[in-house]
């Protein structure tokens, strides 16, 4: 069991990738400082904030726990942050764990039986729960109880252990892997979208203040445009540019400094790094622009299928450089143009 103070995160194994939307261990702690603490400080995602505000108010008025909530969206878009804020706004405890961390029934039973009325249990990567654990969760969510089997064979009997009324907040990057029965037990399902560039700019400005760094508006815009519409990436780029500004200059960030430091880091005008470019180049050069199957592509560029699907592709599709078709992945004309490759319409 983890708690808020242990800075838990969906830690990435790709430590060397600057624009990965997953958190690296070194930055989990600093992310904690930059994390907005109230709904008012949480930028964007208006489609979620309004209904959430109402549910929070209603739950407070009735002095009842808020219904179970499922948050889904790409890594780094703010699921953990939002869950934390909900707990703060309600004034309840926030407990955090992750699907892969819950291996035994006893692990989950221990967590659930320690929850107090109204507490929030956040399960990150909830699509990765094993079947037995998931079934325990059904009764816990629906009846606020867990059934424990005592004894073996003909003398075995079920003991029902009551739980306090709690709220489960589940987070997932892969809605399609969530089982129907689990999905149906959530009262609210919210999708976090990629952010607009001006919203990312807002986050960069706020965080520059928290980091006590002076930054010019044009530099904010430049970093925002290269942040893959993702707050976690924006925070990371801001910190790298700040390092550069402090080491090579007097610490103040202007457009030229931001541009030079991102150039040094090989991040282009669309926020693509070497891996994105390798992926698109491989589709164009090795597979005539596609369609190419995910497993073939993964083998060609030596990356895991899951990483390609959850980390690289969503953003490349969002900016219109990649298409997913029933027959595989295709590079679009924008990708050809961006990589300065000749686009041959007849091949597509
Ligand atoms: P997820 O759980 O979806 O992977 P996190 O909640 O850990 O993402 O967010 C990553 C970082 O991005 C946080 O530390 C936080 O500082 C920042 N962040 C995310 N969403 C927002 C937002 N809407 N406003 C301001 N900062 C945000």
Automatic annotation (TrEMBL):
Gene3D superfamilies: 1.10.8.60, P-loop containing nucleotide triphosphate hydrolases, Winged helix-like DNA-binding domain superfamily/Winged helix DNA-binding domain
Keywords on record: ATP-binding, Cytoplasm, DNA damage, DNA recombination, DNA repair, DNA-binding, Helicase, Hydrolase, Nucleotide-binding
BP GO terms, sorted: DNA recombination; DNA repair
Binding locations of Mg(2+): 80
Region (Head domain (RuvB-H)): 269-348
Catalysed reaction, written as an equation: ATP + H2O = ADP + phosphate + H(+)
Chain sites annotated for binding ATP: 34-35, 76, 79-81, 142-144, 185, 195, 232
Region (Small ATPAse domain (RuvB-S)): 196-266
CDD domains assigned: AAA
Family matches, as PANTHER family: HOLLIDAY JUNCTION BRANCH MIGRATION COMPLEX SUBUNIT RUVB (PTHR42848:SF1), PTHR42848
Annotated family: Belongs to the RuvB family.
Name of the molecule in the record: Holliday junction branch migration complex subunit RuvB
Organism: Candidatus Magasanikbacteria bacterium GW2011_GWC2_37_14
Gene: ruvB
């Amino acid at each position: 069991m983890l708690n808020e103070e242990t800075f838990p995160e969906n830690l990435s194994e790709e430590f060397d990738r600057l624009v990965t939307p997953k958190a690296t261990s070194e930055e989990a702690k600093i992310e904690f400082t930059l994390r907005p603490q109230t709904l008012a400080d949480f930028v964007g995602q208006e489609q979620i904030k309004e209904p959430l505000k109402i549910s929070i108010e209603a739950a407070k008025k009735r002095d009842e726990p808020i219904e179970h909530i499922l948050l889904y969206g790409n890594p780094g878009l703010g699921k953990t942050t939002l869950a934390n804020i909900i707990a703060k706004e309600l004034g309840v405890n926030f407990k955090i764990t992750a699907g892969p961390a819950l291996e035994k029934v006893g692990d989950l039973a221990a967590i659930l039986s320690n929850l107090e009325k109204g507490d929030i249990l956040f399960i990150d990567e909830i699509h990765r729960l094993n079947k037995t654990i998931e079934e325990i969760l059904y009764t816990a969510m629906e009846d606020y109880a867990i059934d424990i089997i005592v004894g073996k064979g003909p003398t075995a009997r079920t003991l029902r252990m009551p739980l306090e009324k709690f709220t489960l907040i589940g987070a997932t990057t892969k809605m399609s892997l969530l089982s129907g029965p689990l999905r149906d037990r959530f009262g609210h399902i919210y999708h976090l979208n990629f952010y607009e560039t001006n919203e990312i700019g807002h986050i960069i400005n706020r965080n520059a203040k928290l980091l006590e760094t002076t930054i010019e508006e044009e530099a904010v815009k430049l970093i925002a445009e290269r942040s893959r519409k993702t707050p976690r990436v924006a925070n990371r780029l801001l910190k790298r540019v700040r390092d550069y500004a402090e080491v090579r200059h007097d610490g103040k960030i202007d457009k030229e400094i931001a541009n030079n430091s991102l150039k040094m880091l090989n991040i282009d005008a669309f926020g693509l790094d070497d891996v994105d470019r390798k992926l698109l180049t491989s589709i164009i050069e090795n597979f005539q622009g596609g369609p190419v199957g995910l497993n073939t592509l993964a083998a060609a560029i030596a990356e895991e299928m899951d990483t390609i699907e959850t980390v690289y592709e969503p953003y490349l599709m969002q900016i219109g450089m990649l298409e997913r078709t029933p027959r595989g992945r295709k590079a679009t004309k924008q990708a050809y143009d961006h990589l300065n490759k000749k686009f041959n319409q007849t091949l597509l």
